[in-house]
UniProtKB/TrEMBL annotation:
<dbReference type="Pfam" id="PF00027">
    <property type="entry name" value="cNMP_binding"/>
</dbReference>
<dbReference type="Pfam" id="PF13545">
    <property type="entry name" value="HTH_Crp_2"/>
</dbReference>
<dbReference type="InterPro" id="IPR036388">
    <property type="entry name" value="WH-like_DNA-bd_sf"/>
</dbReference>
<dbReference type="InterPro" id="IPR018488">
    <property type="entry name" value="cNMP-bd_CS"/>
</dbReference>
<dbReference type="InterPro" id="IPR018490">
    <property type="entry name" value="cNMP-bd_dom_sf"/>
</dbReference>
<feature type="coiled-coil region">
    <location>
        <begin position="121"/>
        <end position="148"/>
    </location>
</feature>
<dbReference type="InterPro" id="IPR012318">
    <property type="entry name" value="HTH_CRP"/>
</dbReference>
<keyword id="KW-0238">DNA-binding</keyword>
<protein>
    <submittedName>
        <fullName>Transcriptional regulator, Crp/Fnr family</fullName>
    </submittedName>
</protein>
<dbReference type="InterPro" id="IPR014710">
    <property type="entry name" value="RmlC-like_jellyroll"/>
</dbReference>
<dbReference type="GO" id="GO:0003700">
    <property type="term" value="F:DNA-binding transcription factor activity"/>
</dbReference>
<dbReference type="InterPro" id="IPR018335">
    <property type="entry name" value="Tscrpt_reg_HTH_Crp-type_CS"/>
</dbReference>
<feature type="domain" description="Cyclic nucleotide-binding">
    <location>
        <begin position="16"/>
        <end position="119"/>
    </location>
</feature>
<dbReference type="GO" id="GO:0005829">
    <property type="term" value="C:cytosol"/>
</dbReference>
<dbReference type="GO" id="GO:0003677">
    <property type="term" value="F:DNA binding"/>
</dbReference>
<dbReference type="InterPro" id="IPR036390">
    <property type="entry name" value="WH_DNA-bd_sf"/>
</dbReference>
<keyword id="KW-0175">Coiled coil</keyword>
């Protein structure tokens, strides 16, 4: 299997490109570069010039911002077949967030000039739908941070990561208190207190950094 053929097979798994013909996928495949990055690599920072679009083949990344006090807030986590970096390429503005690898990652990279040439009507429609979805998620997150206390934010995050509000589900990701704090916009100390309360009252249990939800989580205390 040639590298271009391998890239085309990877692109077929990405929702953004799923409606393209084989000929269109070949055109995309010819301009893609594949690179590997170790864990905790900063791919770009907030305010950087926009020069590339990324698709994740392997591994996961954190997308986040730093607040006025320099505290890191994780906006989302992306994994295989998801992509990032497209918004800044479309509007020409600097990067609005940082992206850092959470695991060793293998990424497909398309340069800015090539990305714009590849925006067919199908790709543009898929991209606009994805941007709309991400905007809705961002609005929900902002609303959650504004209206809920830390207990509510942690509860909402755990349910989101579990994929259900039903009890008896284990969250697959291993999470530290600092990672949870970054994702809910709170201090590590406050999150540790919330986790301790939830554990002591039997709402959750933790084994090897994996959280299991045993009963419906409280949104306040």
């Amino acid at each position: 299997m040639t590298e271009t053929t391998e890239i085309i097979e990877l692109l077929k798994k990405v929702p953004l490109f799923e409606s393209l013909s084989d000929k269109e996928l070949e055109a995309v495949g010819r301009v893609v570069k594949i690179k590997s990055y170790p864990k905790n690599t900063i791919l770009f920072s907030e305010g950087d010039e926009s020069d590339s679009f990324y698709v994740i083949c392997e591994g996961r990344v954190n997308v986040g911002i730093n607040d006025e006090d320099g505290k890191e807030i994780i906006l989302s986590r992306l994994g295989p077949n998801e992509y990032f970096g497209e918004m800044a390429l479309m509007d020409g503005e600097p990067r609005s967030a940082f992206v850092m690898t959470r695991d060793p990652c293998k990424l497909m990279i398309i340069a800015k000039s090539d990305f714009k040439k590849l925006l067919s009507s199908d790709v543009m429609l898929n991209l606009l739908m994805e941007l709309q979805r991400r905007l809705r998620e961002a609005n929900k997150k902002i609303e959650s941070l504004a209206l809920m206390d830390v207990y509510g934010r942690v509860a909402r995050l755990l349910i989101q990561l579990a994929g259900t509000s039903e009890p008896g589900v284990q969250i697959r990701e291993k999470l530290t208190h600092q990672e949870i704090a970054s994702m809910v916009g709170a201090s590590r100390e406050m999150v540790s207190r919330v986790i301790k309360d939830l554990t002591s009252d039997g709402y959750i249990s933790i084994r090897r950094k994996r959280i299991t939800i045993h009963k419906s989580l409280p949104y306040s205390w």
